[in-house]
Amino acid sequence: MTEENGIGHNSNRFEDVGAKRLRSIIERAERVIEEKKALGDDLNEIYSEAKGSGFDVKIIKKIIKIRSRDPKKQREEDALVETYKAALCID
Amino acid sequence: MTEENGIGHNSNRFEDVGAKRLRSIIERAERVIEEKKALGDDLNEIYSEAKGSGFDVKIIKKIIKIRSRDPKKQREEDALVETYKAALCID
Amino acid sequence: MTEENGIGHNSNRFEDVGAKRLRSIIERAERVIEEKKALGDDLNEIYSEAKGSGFDVKIIKKIIKIRSRDPKKQREEDALVETYKAALCID
Amino acid sequence: MTEENGIGHNSNRFEDVGAKRLRSIIERAERVIEEKKALGDDLNEIYSEAKGSGFDVKIIKKIIKIRSRDPKKQREEDALVETYKAALCID
DNA sequence: CATGAAAAAGAAGCGC
DNA sequence: GCGCTTCTTTTTCATG
Known about the structure:
The structure is a homotetramer.
Chain A: H1 13-52, H2 57-68, H3 71-88
Chain C binds a DNA duplex (16 and 16 nucleotides) through α1 and α2.
């Protein structure tokens, strides 16, 4: 059996090691996925509350997205646009 | 000013309340989003580890998806795929 | 047999109609998908040519993306940002 | 000025050539992208029609995907899924 | 080959 | 409840 985990074409102890490891990996992954889902629910609760307070959730999401963009990258991109717009004589 | 939160076209104390609340909502949402991203990173680490152990991450993801699905729905869907394939005379 | 296309549990002429229709739909879809792929190849050729001319393809893609954003929507979004930034006292 | 197209830090005729070429490239790319989008719309229309005829679009997409895949790879992948499931003692 | 970005598919939430 | 949009995930492709 090689390290490449087809888990084992022959029956022996090493397969069990591979299977155990696989099981561990999958269970851990599932746990993390579960936690992610829970956070997603939390987020939705926050948005519901926002809505209940009269705010526009769609707009809030936009704001958050805008705020999440790395400002430096944003500036760089803007600078790039200007450079190329100049070259293309547009705007 | 009404309950509908455009935050306020006129300056008064109530706007401040609205703005504060909005700020709170956004900051909490951002925090949760941050945590979700962190869990996403954790997940990717787990997958990297899996890959390093010789497992096929794509297959692992498929397994996880299969495990997460309602088995009954799964059967129904599979059956429908078979029906359509039969109608098309494929396979 | 209803209009709901499980295509038919019993064998009869109507199924054939459904099967024919299904086959037609799938073949048309596949044709369109094929054409889309071909256009994707065309696009890649254009990018290759650009690269051969010494341009940075990544940057070209960014430019195209920027140009593709609806300017009006862009302005609206910007305005919205400003409104909310003011409310949040940021920047 | 080199062949490397930063388009030119100094003003001269060669830049114009580069700018023209860049403009041409971008416009052609945009045209192709436009056509791709149009085909995407066509595809959606086909799916809408399918739905209107009582078919399950999700299943249709699955069928199309299955038909597009290399059957050998498909078998291998399925086999691997089974292997992993066996290792996990599920199903 | 491995990384990262772009497109497509699938799932979920929102509005009418 | 259904259609529509948005968000997430998956897959593909190009580049190093």
